[in-house]
């Protein structure tokens, strides 16, 4: 089942909010992406930034579990939201 872009963007906003509230994880995201706090603030409503945050969360099962449990969604919903945002398309190499 796929997720609409609007629903994915809503989840992306929730993910950014959750990430910013975690002082231990936010610097890891900033260091991994090269983004600064100003970039994050400016990109809050940008689906590409939301996708970057979802990509980051999807790197670690513990982050997926913590975020999804916090917003009370199924774990697979996070990957579906990522697929609905720019850059999240499934690549077929054949």
From TrEMBL:
* InterPro entries cross-referenced by the UniProt entry: DUF3572 (IPR021955)
What protein am I looking at?
DUF3572 domain-containing protein
Biological source species: Mesobacterium hydrothermale
């Amino acid at each position: 089942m796929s997720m609409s872009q609007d629903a994915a963007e809503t989840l992306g906003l929730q993910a950014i909010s959750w990430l910013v509230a975690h002082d231990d994880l936010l610097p890891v995201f900033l260091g991994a992406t090269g983004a600064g706090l100003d970039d994050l603030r400016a990109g809050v409503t940008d689906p590409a930034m939301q996708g970057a945050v979802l990509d980051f969360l999807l790197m670690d099962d513990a982050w997926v579990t913590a975020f999804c449990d916090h917003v009370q969604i199924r774990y697979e919903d996070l990957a579906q939201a990522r697929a609905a945002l720019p850059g999240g398309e499934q690549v077929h190499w054949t």
